[in-house]
Each structure stands twice: as C-alpha cells, then as structure tokens.
Please model this.
Amino acid sequence: MAKLFIVTGACGHLGSTLVRLLHSRGERVRGLMLPTEGAIAVENVEYFVGDVRDKESLRPLFESAGDAELYVLHTAGIVDISGELSSTLYDVNVNGTRNLVELCRQYRVKRLLYVSSVHAIPEKDSVSVLQEVDQFSADRVVGGYAKTKAEATQAVLEAARTDLNAVVVHPSGILGPFDGSGNHMVQLVVSYLRGKLPACVKGGYDFVDVRDVALGCLLALERGRRGECYILSNRHYEIRELLDMLRQIAGGRRLPVLPLWMARAASPLLQYMARRRRERPLFTRYSLYTLSSNDRFSHDKATCELGYRPRDLFQTLRDTVAWLREKGPRAGKLL
Model:
C-alpha cells in the first residue's frame, strides 16, 4: 500500500533533514510550515501552512490522502534555553502535541513518531547511566523546555497504551548541516568561526549529528515497538573539545576557558553582548546548568533494536562547516 509521510516542523533543523531523507528514498511527503518560514522545493514534497496550536489549521495535512497509509513524524516544537516556562512554550510543545495526537486518532494514522528530548528524562545522580523510562513527569526535570517535553511525552505514551500506534525518540544535543532555523549549537559554530565567540566555558554535553537522528527517527518509525522510547544520543563532548576540532577543520583562535562559576557570573554580560549583536545569547544560566548536568545517555536500546549508529562529531563539524560555506544563510558571507 502507498505511504504518505507527514512531517511537522518541516523547516526546522531536524524536520528539514527528515524531508531530505524521505525525498532521497522517493517517498511522498507533506510538510507543515509556519507562514514566516521558507521551504526547500523538491519533487513529491508538498508544504502546508499551519500552526500546531490551531488544530483546524492542521487538517489539510491529513485530508485527500486517498488510500495511502499515513505516517506522522512530529518534530515541531520550541527549543528554549532560557529555563523559563512561558505560555507560548507550553502551548506549542504540549498543547500542540495533544492536537496532533487527536488528529492522528481521527484520521486513523498508521503510526505516530514523536520527537521528544533527552531533557525529558530525569537526571538521577551524576554518575548513573541514563536509559529509557516509561513514565514522565514535569516535576522530575529542570527547566521550562524539559518540563514541556516531559508532559508531552507522557501524553503520547498514554495514547499509545490505549488506541494509537505511537513511538517516541529522545535526541540529545543536535548539531550538523542543513540548519536554516537557528539551531543554538550551529549558532555557536558560526560565532566561533566568525571570531565573535569571546570565550569557551568548561563543561560539555552529548552532541549528535542531525542526519543520524533523522535516520534514527525513520528506523524507530519502521522497527520501533509501539509505546516504546528510544534514546538517539552519541557521546559526551567538552565544548573545548568541539572548538579544538573546529580549529583543526577551519582555523580560528584558541579561546580562554571559563570555569562554570565564572561563566555564571559573567552570563549577564555575555547575554548583553549577544543582544547588542542582535543575536540570541548562547550562555544562559540554564544552558550553563545543562553543560554541567548528567549526560551519560545510553543509546544501546536504539542500537540493538533499531540498528542506530551515530557518527563521530569530527565528521559532523567538518560537514557543517562545508555546508555553511556553500549553502548556509548569506553563503560566502558567513564564514
């Protein structure tokens, strides 16, 4: 039977990478985009303007599909490193996901894949290896973004336990080429290569290639067990290590490394400097908290059950720099 893949957040970093991957496989795709976004024009990909907060605006995505089986990849959401829980953040990440779940039921979707986050998983202590869990609570995680992803994930799992065929993936910190939506880590890469990153901070996180996450999403859609969660992570990389690799790839200067206590004290100044440059601040109290949090995520389950295998970050950074130079925003002027 013919298949139709619906990708929400189709102009986001992961969403657009999924659209590219599905297109390369010759699949028929419908992508959801906001009125302010631009999309890549490719064969067999239709774009629909809508907002996950407005359920009625999403119906055209599901209608007039003929006899095709519908598969939904819900990547749309707000990634927020401020730590605050705003009404907009909640409405998009939680209520938007609930809207998608209701529509998937109404239109008898074959399977829903929900892109959650590792931030939805409780940290435990600093030395424990973090694996998949089957219950999520906003009270057990830190920061507005994490709380919304935890609540939305729980809503999807509850639906999967009743009347919806759904599966969940938890990517770690996404990095890589094809970003036109302002990924924070790609912003850090650009700032460093432009010579506008004032300092490096001590700490790091688990960073993973967006292409590996996109493939992991499709593997979970095809092979994942209903109602199960799969961590799509890589390994821990220090920020200093990431910048060292960038210097090997593209040149650049060695930056002073600020201890976290100093970075926290300097964060108001760093945020002020970012605003003066009309950029989003990279170093907020919440992002600095994240760089010191437990990121010992295990992707063993995804590797064993799905065949998921992430690549080394050096390759990711090399390809990201090449993409920025060739096809990034204002190509040739960025770097």
About this structure: The chain has eleven helices and twelve strands.
